[in-house]
User: What shape does this take?
Amino acid sequence: MVKKEAREPVPVCQVAPSLLPFVLVGVVGIVAGGLVAAVSRPLGWDHGSWASAYLVLVVGVAQIGLGAGQAAFATSTVPKSRIQAQLALVNGASALVIGGTLLDSPITVTVGCALFVAALVLFASSAAPGGVERSFRLLYVALLVLLIVSTPVGIALSWLRA
Assistant: This one.
């Protein structure tokens, strides 16, 4: 009888502990965006395509990108309190922006956007210099700039539609 050696399981991928919550919530946002897109037309939902895009791009992709950037730049373990604050700010802000848009309430959108900018400041302030490839650093900064620049555009559009 041949004795088999026990092997250690090979992880599919390794994710930094500080990134995992952003990946999990981001994936939920992407799936939710897909579901919203699937039901928007059959239900005749006017804001459906916008809500779907917001869920996929901001709640999903951007949140994963922000978490990945923070994890890559961290020189030490990111405190749980910071991660919790960022998750609360990004997702609370997104709920306000989506809710305000659906209710045609520009003041709610504006408050949501202000909270979102506060979250972006937390992410930007956690990026320590050095330790990461220049191209990745530029990508992270580009994501932050894109999100910061698009925020007042979203506010303006919500007030123009009101």
Notes: The radius of gyration is 19 Å. Residues 20-161 form one domain.
